[in-house]
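REVIEWER CHECKLIST
Item 1: Sequence provided? yes
Item 2: Single chain? yes
Item 3: Sequence as submitted:
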Amino acid sequence: MPLLAGTRLGPYEIIAAIGAGGMGEVYRGRDPRLGRDVAIKLLPEAFSANADRLRRFEQEARAAAALSHPNILAVYDIGTDKGAPYIVSELLEGATLRERLAHGPVSIRKSVDWALQIANGVAAANDKGIVHRDLKPENLFITSDGHIKILDFGLARLEQAMPADSASMTSPAVTTVGTVLGTVGYMSPEQVRGQETDHRTDIFSFGAVLYEMLSGERAFNGATPADTMSAILNKDTADLSRLLAESGSGFQLDRIVAHCLEKKPGARFQSARDLAFALQSSSSGSAPSASGAALAGSPSAATRSRREWAAWGAAALFCLSTLGLIAAYYLRPAPAAAAVVRVTIPLPEGAAIVRSLRARPDANPLALSPDGRYLAFAASVGSTSYLWLRPLNSLTANRLAGTEGAVGPFWSPDSQSIAFSANGTLKRVSVAGGDPQTICEANALGGGSWSQDDVILFSPSLAGEGGLVRVPARGGVPRAVTERDPAHGETNHVWPYFLPDGHSFLFNVFGRDNSGIYVGSLDSATRIKLVSFDRVPGDVGLSTLAYAAPGYLFYVRGQTLTAQPIDLEHFKLSGPAVPVADGVEKIGPGSAAFSVSNTGVLAYWSGTGTPPGQLTWRARDGTVTSRVGAPGGYLSLSLSPDERRIAVGRVDPGSQSAIWVLDSTRGNAIKVSSDAVAFGPIWSPDNLSLAFGSTRSGPPSLFQQAASGSSEEVLLLKSNGTNVATDWCADGRIVFGTSDVQTQGDVWMLPLTGDRTPVPLLQTRFNEALGRCSPNSRWLAYTSDESGRPEVYVTSFPKPGDRWPISTGGGTEPQWRRDGTELFYLAPDGTVMAVPIGTGPVFEAGAATALFKIHGDSYAPTADGRRFITSEPIDAGSHPITIVLNWTAALKK
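Item 4: Structure as written out by the authors:
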């Protein structure tokens, strides 16, 4: 019996009946808790006793609830009332496609628009392993504002296992071979035969729906259901090309429909993404060849025969129209010269471009889609970075759900998906929406590129150290592609970029004497050098790079973005580099924020590479007591043991990082390091010297320099890795961090007496870093991500043994109080935490206490723990992004 108005169903109130179908009754309801009207689908009492129908109903709820996409009906809730199960979903206003088709065929423009929306929704479902299996006009709803919603996942099947937290993990597939489910007229041949189905069955049903929208006739329609099934198995649809000839895209649409309706699944589009791309090509007026590979397939002999005359007719029409276009071209008035257009777009309120505060090449935060329609960028809100998507025809950017920690976005060649790195994994997300999908593990990202063959090439290891690796875009285990050359002291292969052939790629090599941009290949270990990078003030031997049609290599010299013509046939430069944009700041050594599409669109960010910071003295309760010196681009700081001076790594506009020493009270400063990238200063126990990393002799090595700057730099350690000094212990040993492809981040020790052979302290498959000695040189504090996130630990020193966890809920930047009675660290939200430490022979640690919050990651306590020197950003990094349209016109001047 239908429910009456006013009836309560769980927490919901029934308002009115909407309709009924084979899988249940639908009502308009009211959710009093949220004050919104909803749609409630109730399984009839007679059906709820049927185990098979109940299982299908519950599966509909799980399948739909797992999806979040603008073209799929949103499911809010599932429940049971008095034994009757129900689903609560969004309430739609409009009509089904079946109701619309009662008035005749749909216009070509609307058909393509709606079909593209359906394809995007189906693609989102297929990406989660969900096959609808009952696409038909009754299950497609057109809202009052013209949006399509896919309804009824009652016949949906989980094509692959859902994530472990899904309720459907243990649910078997509802249907088996030999069972026919679906709606006659829209079934695929494999459904008609009762065979196993996959996502390609949705593509066949889609083709039948699109055929009906365009023609007003059903694709397969017999006098009886058996006749209709026979037609699906044995007959082709009528030719649409003549019917649609006046549209100018009829021939291409006919090919798309025919390709969907191939009898064999392997001859159809192989994904809804390919189908959507073909539809986009038809709607934008691009030539069929733009999607020719997707449309080619393996059509049957009958299909080829049926289309032969249409093809000859189209060819003749093409010849005639081409003659007309040629005449029109030569007789047209001379157009005005295309102009370069530059505009700026602001970042979202409260967001800041993700930039490096470490001495490593970081992934590019900007990525234009190849078709130039979208800009993706990584920007942080507070201490968390996210991926944002800005359509260039929109006034706003949208933060993509599930992208916390995102860095280094790069696009799929069809402009439909974005890959990025987050929290130790490489992921991909669709521009149409949905949850990101994991591709593989990746502890860091020194740039990535996605080929037309669905191969992803990226730089995977900490600080970009190591060669490039490849992985299928659908996911898998990365495999090595390039190897570093130890003869040249190579440390980094970074910023790969595929060339149009899909096998060759550009990449940046950083070595002792061979830094530059090279061409490599997936099929060969041979590499060809294109551009040499000589180390000069303001450069480091690295540059973010890109390739763009009609044949230009993009890279940065100093702060100038240049485009240089490249001959792809012979892999050599074919002309001089031409400046395209000035003031393109570095966000890390060599890392410049820019991106270019294949359609004449360029984007770059000209904010400061390091956010200006202010050295600030704070009391233990966080009160600011004084400020030191002028604001600057401070990367790190170190307080001298006598607390009279502060050593900093500082970046000035237009230059790389250098070491400066400031008076801790007056703020007057002297530059200590010579012209090279220098970073991470630490003080000697006697206050007289500094140790730091520098690129003076190639890849970052450790140097010693008098704190007064009065002597030459002395090389302490030269190796083929990136070395970052983190502490100079009271017993005279230096603790430093380095990294390895196999063991990731490691902590080592360098004795300054005897044979001075470096010794590994912490070297596991996890990332260990920031080793710091206790004042009595008995303990070593460090960070490790063995728990899945960075935490602070303590172990014995100089021989590691037992270890004790210090932080809970995440921690980094450990710092000892100089009397050894406290250990400080930073919580993930920037709060300085204090942990009391025992002074006995056995290590003991008390409970952590929160002191105050800082907005940077550099701080140091005084000997008594009552004051702290901090470096805190004073600029939110909200400089706008510059968009350049028709950048190629600038090259002709």
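Item 5: Key structural point noted by reviewer: The longest strand covers residues 624-639.
Item 6: Recommendation: ____
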